[in-house]
Amino acid sequence: MKVSSPKFILTLAVGLTVVLGIMMTTFSLPAVNSGVNNVPVGVVTTDKAVYDKFATPLEKKGFDVKQYKSVSSMKDAVNNRKVYGAFEVSNTGDMTLYKATAASTAVAQALETMGNAVVAQQKTA
Q1: What sign has the CA pseudo-torsion 102, 116, 41, 96?
Q2: Which pLDDT does position 39 carry in this prediction?
Q3: What residues in the chain have per-residue pLDDT under 70?
Q4: Which residues pair with 88 in a beta bridge?
Q5: What's the rounded Cα separation, in Å, for the pair 41 and 49?
Q6: The sheet that has 85-89: what strands, in order across it?
Q7: Considering only CA atoms, which of 63, 69, 66 is closest in space to residue 82?
Q8: 48-60 and 105-124 helices cross at what angle (nearest 10)?
Q9: What is the pTM of this model?
Q10: Beta bridge partners of residue 26, listed in sequence order
Q11: Residue 70: phi, psi to the nearest 5?
Q12: Were both Cys, which of 47, 49, 77, 84 would link to 103 (CB 3.0–4.6 Å)?
């Protein structure tokens, strides 16, 4: 039976440690850099003040917000996948969320969460 030298064992241990470190870094970077980044969404309203109140928190969270003047133009944008979803804001402050059928689950959930938070914030104001 041949006995391995201490130099070989040390080199093997250091080499495996470096390889494992590189693999762990490679698999962890997507989780660190993930999130909403320029996801296009729409807001349907003709009132500029309502649009600004609704769009500002969404833009701070990384959404690319576009204003639509009518529900039909917004539905065309959603159906043609120009936006992942859109919020229709009524005069009373109620919100309806339209989502693209092929939108990812994470984006759909983020849209629902953000929309509910903005509506709740506007109703308390």
Answers
A1: positive
A2: 85
A3: 1, 33-36, 93, 103, 119, 122-125
A4: 44, 96
A5: 18
A6: 63-68, 39-44, 85-89, 95-99
A7: 66
A8: 130
A9: 0.64
A10: none
A11: -140, 155
A12: 84
Tokens of 85: 């979803």
Residue 89 has a pLDDT of 77
Residue 99 in 3-state DSSP? strand
> So what's the pLDDT on residue 18?
96
Instruction: Mark out the alpha helices in 1-125 (DSSP H runs).
Output: 6-32, 48-60, 71-79, 105-124
And the tokens for 6?
Answer: 């201490």
DSSP state of 55: H
Query: Quick one: tokens of 22?
Result: 């590189």
Burial of 32 per CB tally in 10 Å (0-12, 13-18, 19+): exposed
* Cα gap 56→63, rounded to integer Å: 10
For each of the domains in the chain, give its residue range(s) and CATH number, in order of start.
1-34 (no CATH), 39-124 (3.40.190.10)
Amino acid at 111: L
Residue 14, SS3? helix
pLDDT on residue 62? 82
Instruction: Give phi and psi for 100, each to the nearest 5.
Output: -70, 140
